[in-house]
């Protein structure tokens, strides 16, 4: 039994890793919790009282009362604290944590003397690798609305810094506050940190940059400010969700070194150009949400290298220039959203014939200054896949006024490298018969990252 469980723990670790690195993150996001439990066999696990009796810690068991008859008290016991098991130590931390929070839904009500630590709500146990020790492998307090005792916030210190066996810490939608304890950088198997929709303030938490095993980082919906450090993009992260904060400044030049598949940077205050290095992420980058920032300048042609990208959304920024011809190389793209910027020129044929877009995709160019559609684009318009409302296209309804379009034309600043915008780094797709075949497989995948624009957890 111990052997199996020990294997299970490693399996959990590997499962996390594998799931997050698998193609289908949506499955990973949906199934990770259950498969962790399945992996640990908790559903079918027989009762564990035998082990648990030994532990019984955290209860503050009372010392034996001195016998009234004895005239002289027994000598005090040697001041040697008993060594606590991993589980016992975590139990103490959890009970102390419970005593310091307001738990409006009573989620922690079974955290008491009569309950095995591993049966506490929100606790996942496993056997710590290379030992026979049961340990708390993960905490899941997603959407439990925990607060401090006085309707205030809860420090991360006191919980996240106290359980070195953690593989994940999922606390979406609570009131956690304060710096991320640097202890996490020494945790050997810490894979997932979800602090989304809490009360984090201040600069990007540098501690996560030193956490060696992290693959999943979710800091969405906090109040983080300042720049995003370049080291973030060197880390072997699969998912970076930092949308709906107050990050500002430019993205670092090495942005494209990230091996992440899912990047949501939406609804911050990022400025400057989208770094040309983005093309270097062509082996992995699948969904990119940049919407709702202050990005400016022209789109770099290197975006066309992103042959795995299914979602690219830069809507609601201050970007300008024409659509680079390289966009015709985005062979997997389904959702391309450039709406509400200052793009202009002709909408290229090569983009309108991309199979992912034609087959139930979405090409949103509303609220720009485009002046012309090439023929294939007109059929997308008819099938309502393409939205070009509020542009400058003669003969179409819902366009900007002539005056507005004229004034814009007079103010156009050319892109810094205009020749690059006609560069096509792939074989063009035009006239490719395969494009007429329904891309049924591609249609099946639903975008993942748009769900990150809702503050609540991504996992069910
Ligand atoms: C990936 O992008 C780089 C430039 O960023 C480019 O040199 C390389 O050819 C691309 N690889 C593929 C397979 O498209
Ligand atoms: C396309 O995307 C835009 C922007 O997200 C959305 O408003 C619109 O409803 C979508 N259109 C279709 C047909 O799905």
From TrEMBL:
SUPFAM superfamilies cross-referenced by the UniProt entry: L domain-like
Keywords: Cell wall, Cell wall biogenesis/degradation, Hydroxylation, Kinase, Leucine-rich repeat, Repeat, Secreted, Signal, Transferase
Protein origin, superkingdom: Eukaryota
Protein name: Cell wall hydroxyproline-rich glycoprotein
Biased composition (Pro residues): 65-81
Gene responsible for this protein: 11446209
Key word Nucleotide-binding present: no
PANTHER family per record: LEUCINE-RICH REPEAT EXTENSIN-LIKE PROTEIN 3-RELATED (PTHR32093), LEUCINE-RICH REPEAT-CONTAINING N-TERMINAL PLANT-TYPE DOMAIN-CONTAINING PROTEIN (PTHR32093:SF131)
Main location: secreted
Start and end residues of each Leucine-rich repeat-containing N-terminal plant-type domain: 91-125
Region (Disordered): 55-81, 435-460
Signal peptide: 1-28
Matches recorded under Pfam families: LRR_1, LRRNT_2
Segments traversing the membrane: none
Subcellular location: Secreted, Cell wall
GO terms of biological process kind: cell wall organization
